[in-house]
Amino acid sequence: MKKSVIAIVALFTLSLVSCKKNYECECSITRTNGSTTLTTDDGKYTFKDTRARAENRCNDEEGSGNDGFGAYTRDCQIK
Questions:
Q1: How far apart are CA 35 and CA 76, in angstroms?
Q2: CA distance 15 to 45
Q3: How many domains does the chain have?
Q4: Counting Cβ atoms within 10 Å, is residue 50 exposed (0-12), middle (13-18) or buried (19+)?
Q5: Integer distance in angstroms from the first to the last C-alpha of the chain?
Q6: Residue 8 falls within a domain, yes or no?
Q7: Which residues contact 54 (CB under 8 A, 6 or more apart)?
Q8: Fewer CB in 10 Å around end: N or C, the chain?
Q9: 21-33/70-78 β-pairing
Q10: Distance between CA atoms of residues 50 and 36, nearest Å
Q11: What is the pTM of this model?
Q12: The domain containing residue 51 runs over which residues?
């Protein structure tokens, strides 16, 4: 009986920890062209997942490079 209660409590605790929720990932992009730097919003994403997985997916949206407007860096964070 004691083992069953412990097992039930453990399962209940795990279900609370691994709960999937909606997490919003907000991205901004910083562009540099010569001496000019401009930072603007660059999208919002909603991930229904655990916090750890949502943070990983949000980080996957980050990047940097060059395009027709100059060098850019894209930064994303869970809000």
A1: 24
A2: 25
A3: 1
A4: middle
A5: 43
A6: no
A7: 23, 25, 47, 78
A8: N
A9: antiparallel
A10: 39
A11: 0.70
A12: 20-78
Query: What pLDDT, on the 0 to 100 scale, is given for residue 73?
Result: 97
pLDDT tens-digit series, residues 10-67: 666 655 556 789 999 999 999 998 889 999 999 999 999 999 999 999 999 999 999 8
Any idea which residue has 């929720």 for tokens?
Answer: 21
- Nearest CA-CA partner of 50 in 78, 10, 26: 78
b/e map 2-40, b = 16+ CB within 10 Å = eeeeeeeeeeeeeeeeeeeeebebbbebebeeeeeeeee
**Which residue, chain included where needed, has tokens 């907000």?**
26
Is 6 domain-assigned?
no
